[in-house]
Write a structure and sequence with these properties.
4 helices, about 120 residues, 4 strands, alpha+beta, about 40% helix, Nuclear Transport Factor 2, Chain: A
Length: about 120
């Protein structure tokens, strides 16, 4: 099935649990939880040390992640990208959380991730 054919609610049913694990990993400084849905290529880009350093920086600046609100969904043939307005407990700044989820071998994997 093409990812372009998926409805918003179908995409969110896939993406939300993955994003929950990503953000729980950030909150708990748990790289294994954070990266459990990552593709092999993404795991090769983000090391545990890099992850922990980013956690330190985010927590010092924004605190811990709390609620998020979907902003947009972009679809491609074999992937989709979801963009959220991610809230943190010690910041009033707007923070974007973005994840691209790719369909590979019949399974969905997080292929790109950004908090900015």
């Amino acid at each position: 099935m093409s990812c372009q054919e998926l409805e918003d609610d179908e995409i969110l049913k896939i993406a939300e649990p993955m994003m929950d694990d990503i953000m729980a990993g950030v909150s708990n400084r748990d790289y294994k939880m954070h990266s459990v849905h990552f593709s092999v290529s993404l795991k090769g880009v983000l090391t545990q040390d890099d992850f922990l350093a980013a956690c330190d920086q985010r927590e010092a600046s924004w605190g811990r992640p709390i609620a998020r609100e979907k902003v947009a969904i972009f679809r491609r043939e074999k992937s989709f990208t979801v963009i959220w307005d991610q809230h943190f407990d010690h910041s009033t700044e707007q923070v974007v959380a973005l994840t691209t989820i790719a369909l590979k071998g019949g399974r969905y994997f997080v292929d790109y991730f950004l908090i900015h």
